[in-house]
Design brief:
With 249 residues, this protein is α/β, with parallel strands linked by helices. 35% of the residues lie in helices and 25% in strands. It has one domain: Rossmann fold, CATH 3.40.50. The structure holds adenosine-5'-triphosphate.
Length: 249
């Protein structure tokens, strides 16, 4: 098993003056792996991702990325440290072309155009379908193609770890398989992945690791096949199975 690219320890986070939503979460993501966070509605999955990418400042705990403490960095600084993020919604500018979306994504993080050409080539290698549509408006793409563009934009600055918040949300079933294939292509290109997914079984097929989040805490971390073959997967998912402590894989 590879070294962790991301280690989260005793993380607490919440909104404004409200109580903690993330209540001491701890887990790790292996370098080169696809890891998937699952858990019931309201468990805090999106809040966890927001606190990892710097949209929400953690109240305590630590986030270590590539052996550096990034806990208190803001979102652009975390992106420069190698963390890419694809939000669930509003993840491309629909009134801009594919090429313009990619350039903007690069320039926002890299602060300039040096390296832009190489970044575009790297992304087009992963998503060849986007090459000939570069001038097309993002708003005219299918849901699946738009999701690929969102991945492509997040890849422009060259992240080492990509965080995806429910990439299959809102996609019609015929595009879901295509989207998971796109996640796999990104991973095959050497980018580690941490995603939230409600399409649990499909996500586990391409994942190495399952991370079960319930009530703001990680109840289990285990190899994806073990999760899929668990005799009471529903209880495991809901956090009521007999798993006493996270099992680090
Ligand atoms: N901006 C916000 N301000 C205050 N509370 C929020 C905010 N966003 C989410 N919450 C609360 O945080 C809790 C966890 O929500 P979150 O969206 O992180 O869970 P989730 O596991 O991603 O849920 P789902 O699977 O339904 O998307 C919920 O009680 C929610 O109401």
């Amino acid at each position: 098993m590879s070294d962790p690219i991301l280690t989260v320890d005793a993380l607490r986070a919440g909104y404004g003056s409200g109580g903690d939503i993330i209540k001491g979460a701890g887990f790790s993501v292996s370098e080169g792996a696809i890891s998937t966070i699952v858990g019931p509605n309201g468990a805090g999955k999106s809040t966890l991702i927001k606190s990892l990418v710097g949209l929400l400042t953690p109240r305590s705990g630590t986030i270590t990325l590539n052996e550096a403490d990034v806990t208190r960095l803001n979102a652009p600084a975390k992106a420069r440290a190698g963390l890419g993020y694809v939000p669930q919604e509003h993840n491309v500018f629909r009134n801009m072309s594919i090429g313009e979306n990619m350039t903007l994504a690069y320039e926002f993080i890299a602060k300039g155009t040096k390296g832009l050409k190489a970044a575009r080539e790297r992304v087009f290698d992963i998503f060849p379908d986007l090459v000939h549509r570069e001038a097309d408006m993002a708003g005219n793409l299918s849901g699946g193609q738009r999701q690929m563009l969102a991945f492509g934009c997040a890849l422009m600055p060259g992240p080492s770890l990509l965080l995806l918040d429910e990439p299959s949300a809102g996609l019609s079933p015929k595009y879901v398989a295509e989207m998971f294939q796109a996640v796999k292509s990104v991973n095959d290109a050497g980018v580690s992945i941490l995603m939230i997914e409600q399409n649990v079984k499909e996500a586990m097929v391409i994942s190495e690791t399952a991370i079960v989040l319930v009530s703001g805490q990680v109840r289990a971390q285990m190899p994806a096949p073990e999760f899929l073959n668990h005799p009471d997967i529903h209880a495991l998912y809901m956090g009521t199975a007999d798993v006493t402590a996270p099992e680090t894989v």
